[in-house]
Amino acid sequence: MPSQPVDFHSGAPVDLDLSVEWMDGSGLNEPLVQVHALDEHTFILRQSLKTHYEGPFVFLLLGNTGALLIDSGATSDEETWPLRHLVDGIITDWLVAHPTPSYSLTVAHSHGHGDHTAGDVQFSHRANTRVVPASLEGVKSFFGFTNWPNETVSFDLGGRILRVIAGPGHEEAATLFYDPWTGVLFTGDTVYPGRLYVVDMFAYIATLDRAITVMAEVPVSYLLGCHIEMSSTPGHDHPLGSLSHPGEAPMPMRPGQLVTLRERAVEIAHVPGVYKFDDVIIYNGKAVVDDYLNPSSGTEGGSD
């Protein structure tokens, strides 16, 4: 018997449990994955830095008729990154309390880089599951963008209606997701406490403008990105490739930081280079990004 649908409107945005100490690769007995519930309908899963230096976060949002998994992590191997097993378990447990026939799962992405899409293969034969192609055309077609990137569109999980914001700048098919239930703006690699690799600064500024426009219309409590690279020391990051991040900066960022980031981006837009701030480091320009990520090859790899 179907249960009474969850009311994802009344009382939103809800209080979230952000009292979590993320595993940072420095513990001897850390799990392969850390799972944390922001509330009973919203989960964050972090891949261990010991299995991949990016240590990415993925997000699972559950609605009345389906769930959305934002990103699938940096590893395809289920032995070291048992994402499918954990997602299935969360959904199964949720459906015990909220029985719903033909419950679906959509696997989408903050953008198309390999450390956010490698786990897609784990869901390729899962029943009632759609894996959104990480290409620009795939994203536009699936979500129904008709005026990319100058629009936002809606995506309904069954009463939990998300806003999907076109987000190029870091990568051409990047998207941001706003969830009214939690008040969270999921910002992928566009905004997070770390190294922001911007290959097209003017597209990036336009993305920040769209996000700020959304924030003016709806309550945004937090920005949650897909990595933590900054340390607790302002202006200092954990070096690329580090397998442990002792003393990480907090994961959540505040809406005001997005506004400040936009101001900084405008100031440096015409001058490629590396710009360090207390909460982020901006790599401005494709050549700058390529040189940092792959100095020997001069081409951007599949990470970040």
Question: Would you write up a description of this structure?
Answer:
It is a single chain. The protein has about 300 residues and is α/β, with parallel strands linked by helices. It is built from six helices and 14 strands. The strands form three sheets. It has a six-stranded mixed sheet, with helices on one face. Helix 4 packs antiparallel against helix 5. The chain is globular, with a radius of gyration of 18 Å. The N and C termini lie far apart (about 45 Å).
Structure described in brief:
The chain has 304 residues and is of the alpha/beta class. The protein contains six helices and 14 strands. The chain has a six-stranded mixed beta sheet, covered by helices on one side. Strands 7-8-9-10-12 form a five-stranded mixed beta sheet, with helices on one face. Strands 11-14-13 form a three-stranded mixed beta sheet, covered by helices on one side.
Key phrases:
304 residues; alpha/beta; single chain; globular; 5-stranded mixed β-sheet; 22% helix; 14 strands; 6-stranded mixed β-sheet; 6 helices; disordered C terminus
What secondary-structure arrangement, pairings included, does this model have?
Blueprint: E1 33-39, E2 42-47, E3 57-62, E4 66-70, H1 83-97, E5 104-108, H2 114-117, E6 129-131, H3 136-143, E7 152-156, E8 161-166, E9 175-179, E10 184-188, E11 195-198, H4 201-217, E12 222-225, H5 255-268, E13 273-276, E14 281-284, H6 286-293
Parallel strand pairs: 4-5, 5-6, 10-12, 11-14
Antiparallel strand pairs: 1-2, 2-3, 3-4, 7-8, 8-9, 9-10, 13-14
